Amino acid sequence: MKKNRRWLLFITAFLLVSGLVTSPLRAQFHFGAKGGLTLGQLKSVPETFLEGFPWKTKRGWVGGVFASFEFLPGVSIQPEVLYIQKGARLVDPEYDFQARFNFDYFEVPVLLKINLSLEGAAAVPSIFLGPFFGFNQKATIVMVDPYSKETEDIKSDVQKAEYGITFGLMFTQKWGPGYFSVDARYDLGLTNILKPGVEWMQSIKTRTWVFMIGYSY
After folding, report:
1. What does the DSSP assignment read for 112-150?
2. Whole-structure pTM value
3. pLDDT reported for residue 121
4. Contact 161, 139 (CB under 8 A)
5. Which domains does the chain have, with CATH numbers?
6. Would the pLDDT of 21 be above 50?
7. CA–CA distance, 151 with 101 (Å, rounded to integer)
8. Among residues 25, 151, 162, 165, which is most buried (max CB within 10 A)?
9. Using an 8 Å Cβ cutoff, are 192 and 201 in contact?
């Protein structure tokens, strides 16, 4: 755990310092907004909340703002501020029962983005990688059956913050006065988001696919 934290701090410091020491005359700055869909999963100990009922994917939403600083040709630092819904589901089809584990975060990724040169391409592809830091805003279990719906607040059992690594692929195209973008990424949570001593699970880590569209100037 400590080694992972050190690596994340090192990567973040490297990205920030790289941007600061770059000549402002050379840098290009863009600012925009984005939003889209999340597909959440959980990695836990034990492997599931109820024996015989594995975690299922849970859909959610994500949205926020971002800035992009191109400090070398084709190389950018892209900090973002997102509101993101994570979690997973348990489903019992025999009794038409579903339990949704919802974990909402304000998330701050700091990405290193590298453009890939493809001659004649209408859109510019990019790959990106970087740490993210999330601050928990909501944690609930929603239990639904044909006759009722109950919500249990479990925020007191959840750590205030998590961190991890996000990586993915983006396509950007000039559109009107700005730039239209589409990106797909994977958020790999490295933190046990449960507080020590929680009785109902030993460990939960988030695993989230994120798909967004954005526009920037």
Report:
1. EEEE---TT-SSEEEEEEEEEEEEEEEEEEEEEETTEEE
2. 0.86
3. 77
4. no
5. 2-216 (2.40.160)
6. no
7. 10
8. 162
9. no
Residue 32 exposed, middle or buried by CB count within 10 Å (0-12, 13-18, 19+): middle
With a CB cutoff of 8 Å and minimum separation 6, the contacts of 104 are 83, 84, 85, 86, 136, 137, 138, 139
pLDDT at 11 over 80: no
Report the sign of the C-alpha dihedral through residues 191, 86, 127, 21, in that order: negative
Confidence label for 80 from pLDDT (cuts 50, 70 and 90): very high
The CA distance from 90 to 98, in Å, is 6
Which amino acid is it at 157? D
In DSSP terms, 203 is beta-bridged to 45
Nearby residues of 17 by Cβ (< 8 Å), 6 or more positions away: none
CB 188 within 8 A of CB 165: yes
Sign (positive or negative) of CA dihedral 38, 188, 20, 27 = negative
